[in-house]
Amino acid sequence: MLVVNRDSQAASVLVAMLCDHGFLAEAVGVTALRNGAGGQDCDLVILDMMVCEDGGLAMLRMLTQRRHCPGVIMLSRHASEVDRIVALEMGADDCVAKPTSPREMLARVRSVVRRRSRTPPVAAVDIGEAGLDRDKRIAVARFAGWTFEVETRTLTSPAGAVVPLTNGEYGMLLRFVAQPRTVQSRERLAVASGKPAGGQRDRTIDVNVSRLRRKLADHTADELIRTVRSGGYLFMPVVACDLATNGGC
């Protein structure tokens, strides 16, 4: 476990408490954490929201996009309710108000560890041009700071805003994240969105892609969907996915 706290004395007390109760823990600085302190073997990060100017959200996003995503408990003294909600929406396992007693902190750590140990493991993979095997199913896709939870059909922006999707947009986005950096024809996108391809339907797909592109553009300046002349559309970001163990894509 890694503890990142702007108060070095409080960090030392927390590390000592965790070690006394059988956990392996150490205090690190935000720069060390950003540079990969703890490698991929860290199971839990306790992160003070005030160590970064953005309230630790960029650091939280970096942690949740790791191949081995650790649990994250955010510590907050001055953060607003909105800040705490955004942190939880972005993937934090808990958000604890400072100051808190060592006993409560220990209970929260144990709670996160128990919850994560009951969660069936998933494999986090980078999806390349070859896409997914047919026996694989995406549980969560992450790209350019976005999080797309497939089962709940939840798309969350880099800032933590939930962006609603129509059934057609959901189907197209699922096709895009399953095969990024691969040209998707209008026919394939029509099938993905539940519409027959051909003729006037192709123009309907263009309209639907434009709407999805506009929703993404409202929350980021990056070009995520590129038009390929006489070909279709190309999903540009690198995609990392948590894969469910059963079912087809």
TrEMBL record:
Q: Start and end of every Response regulatory domain? A: 1-113
Q: Which InterPro entries match?
A: CheY-like_superfamily, OmpR/PhoB-type_DNA-bd, Sig_transdc_resp-reg_C-effctor, Sig_transdc_resp-reg_receiver, WalR-like, WH-like_DNA-bd_sf
Question: What GO CC terms are in its UniProt record?
Answer: cytosol; protein-DNA complex
Q: Name one Pfam family in it.
A: Response_reg
What keywords would UniProt list here? DNA-binding, Phosphoprotein, Transcription, Transcription regulation, Two-component regulatory system
Matching entries from CDD domains are given as: trans_reg_C (cd00383)
4-aspartylphosphate modifications at:
48
Q: Which residues bind DNA?
A: 138-237
Q: Is Transcription given among the entry's keywords?
A: yes
GO-annotated molecular function: phosphorelay response regulator activity; transcription cis-regulatory region binding
In this protein, which residues make up the domain named OmpR/PhoB-type?
Answer: 138-237
List this protein's GO terms for biological process: regulation of DNA-templated transcription
Put simply, this protein is called DNA-binding response regulator
Lineage, uppermost ranks: Bacteria, Pseudomonadati, Pseudomonadota, Alphaproteobacteria, Sphingomonadales
